[in-house]
Design a protein that fits this description.
Blueprint (H helix, E strand, L loop, with lengths): L2 H46 L5 E7 L2 E7 L5 E11 L4 E9 L4 E9 L13 H4 L25 H20 L7
Antiparallel strand pairs: 1-2, 2-3, 3-4, 4-5
């Protein structure tokens, strides 16, 4: 057998084996990855709507909402995902909203690629806790009613803008004082 033909056959066999190993490992790990993603989603919903034990998923006008319920089935708030633009790319966050009060109940950063030590501090409670109890009618302007992080103004502004933009749509679907 020609040396080149043998090399091509060996490379083909290694390529097929590598593809099979990758496909097998994907099939084995994907259920666990999906299970972990579901657990992370539930944890973030429970984090932004305190006091809930379960939630119902609702689709409205192209958005997904998670209505938080307590043990007795009382509605405690709504959670929804929002995205803002940060320095390192999109900032995905889970926002808790109480339509009865017209206030935010919590904020959790789900994913971001901000600068470690600066913009990445937006996921710390020192930053996210300032949004709890904030009215949906607040302007969400950095350095005015939203505290920024020294040395990182783009990331906090991205979070504030992402929340404000989403709230404009969410409050039309679930107006303040309305039923949900």
């Amino acid at each position: 057998m020609n040396q080149y033909v043998r090399m091509i056959v060996v490379l083909f066999i290694f390529s097929v084996l590598s593809g099979a190993v990758l496909a097998f490992s994907y099939e084995v790990t994907i259920p666990k990855i999906q299970e972990q993603a579901q657990k992370d989603l539930e944890a973030s919903i429970k984090n932004v709507i305190p006091g809930i034990t379960r939630y119902e998923q609702v689709e409205k006008e192209g958005m997904t909402f998670y209505i938080g319920l307590d043990d007795q089935g009382n509605k405690k708030g709504i959670a929804f995902k929002s995205t803002g633009q940060g320095f390192g790319g999109p900032i995905e966050m889970m926002v808790g909203y109480d339509p009865k009060e017209g206030k935010l109940t919590g904020l959790q950063i789900l994913s971001m690629a901000e600068t470690p030590g600066l913009g990445a501090r937006i996921q710390e409670p020192a930053f996210t806790d300032q949004f709890k109890g904030k009215s949906v009618n607040d302007p969400f302007v950095p350095k005015e009613d939203v505290q920024v992080i020294t040395g990182a103004t783009i990331s906090p502004a991205g979070v504030a803008n992402g929340i404000k933009t989403a709230l404009e749509k969410v409050t039309k679907i679930y107006p303040v004082g309305g039923d949900y």
